[in-house]
Design goal:
213 residues; Rossmann fold; 10 strands; globular; binds adenosine-5'-triphosphate; nucleotide-binding; AAA+_ATPase; ATP-binding cassette domain-containing protein
């Protein structure tokens, strides 16, 4: 079943058309968005996460078009953008719990889930340290971990394994594969990476078009 559908979606910034009449469906399972730098992968992900609106066309969540379905989509969403400013003075746990509270999650359950996720991706021993002490790769894993809280039905992950060493990338990848068993997981990546073998579909974003790879 296609949870999320794009029909003839276009996105322009000023005169620059980044996405051109994109029609694509995103079912439960893993969708990889591949394509060269600047192709529009992150833009597409922001549209899917309802962080931006299309210039034209329709986005349909669970059978209902946006904007009517926007709140429902956001309640079901975990989003890990590529670059986000984190509150350096907070501990990673305090930040994650803040995100859980914004999502309206039960905080005891969310804290338990945070423990399991961070354990799986090698962040557990640093969870009570302040974010200012975090490396780039640790920040990326924290953004990834908060996206998974509440087991969202739609997971939009912008290059979750970038900046990670091979073993850590593999651990994050294993979590992505696990989530894709019960959610529509959409992952952008520069390269056709190891996740491709687990993907329900691989879509190539290039020159405004989105086509099966
Ligand atoms: N807010 C914006 N205003 C103007 N142009 C933008 C904006 N956001 C993105 N763009 C342009 O849209 C194009 C696609 O950018 P996008 O970040 O989506 O590409 P990408 O495929 O994710 O690239 P990368 O792999 O390097 O992250 C680029 O030319 C970029 O400059």
């Amino acid at each position: 079943m296609t949870l999320l559908q794009l029909d003839l979606v276009r996105k322009s910034y000023g005169r620059k058309r980044v996405l051109d009449d994109v029609t694509a469906g995103f079912p439960i399972g893993l969708t990889l968005l591949i394509g060269p730098s600047g192709a529009g992968k992150s833009t597409l992900l922001r549209l899917l996460a309802s962080a931006e609106r299309p210039s034209r066309g329709t986005i349909i969540w669970d059978g209902t078009p946006l904007p009517a379905a926007r709140t429902a989509l956001r309640r079901s969403l975990g989003y890990a953008p590529q670059a986000v400013e984190l509150p350096d003075d907070l501990s990673a746990r305090a930040f994650a719990m803040h995100m859980a509270a914004l999502k309206g999650l039960d905080l005891v359950a969310a804290d338990r889930q945070l423990g399991a996720i961070t354990d799986a991706i090698g962040l557990h021993s640093d969870i009570d340290n302040r974010i200012i002490t975090y490396s780039g790769g640790m920040r990326r894993r924290l953004i990834f971990a908060q996206a998974l809280l509440g087991a969202p039905k739609l997971l939009a992950l912008d290059e979750p394994t970038a900046e990670l060493d091979g073993e850590t990338a593999r651990r994050v990848g294993a979590q992505v594969i696990e989530q894709a068993k019960s959610a529509a997981v959409i992952v952008t990546t520069h390269l056709a990476d190891e996740l491709a073998q687990y993907a329900t579909q691989v879509l190539r974003v290039d020159e405004g078009r989105v086509i099966p790879a």
